[in-house]
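Schema walk-through. Below, the input block comes first and the output block second. Nothing else is stored per chain. Lengths vary across the set, and this one has 192 residues.
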Amino acid sequence: MRDYQKCSGVAITWRYRQALKNQYGVATLLMTGLVLAVAMMFVMSRYSTTLYQVKRAQNTVLSRQAHWLAEGGLACGFEWLHGMIQTRLPTTLPELKSVSHQPKQVVHCQQESEHRQRKVWIRALGEGGYQITAEAKVAGKARVRLGYQAFLWLCQNGRAGDCQRFTAEMSVSDGDRVVLKWRAGSWHDFPA
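--- output ---
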């Protein structure tokens, strides 16, 4: 009977060891799965943060492009207005003294393409003052509207040191020059 128990004990011990070996594999698999789950959660949180940063950077780039396009529109409107004043000065003098509340769209400065749009308006403020407004839209997402004021200056005898801001009482003689200058501190970012 002792031999039977011994054989039986060996058989039980061998089966027990086999069962333990299988349990060690399950424990290793469980630990590996947990480590992989934690690593995956870390990677996915980093991925969403990176994706957010990429989208924010793209929006910033589009916003800056729209701003630069609008600034170009302001410069174009200023140059167009300055050219119109220089070429038609004697005939435009009554217009310069009057106020027109209706803005005039400058077709010369417009830009229309698939992804970029720019429009420029000029409105007379009276007393030789003008409001130049430019609106730009890039990729249908970023939209910027900028405004700036410019005023006429009358330079007596064509000298830059003898310039005064243009008023309705002033008259322009043959040697005088009328110059358009930006008004300091008149920059506006309008809500688009």
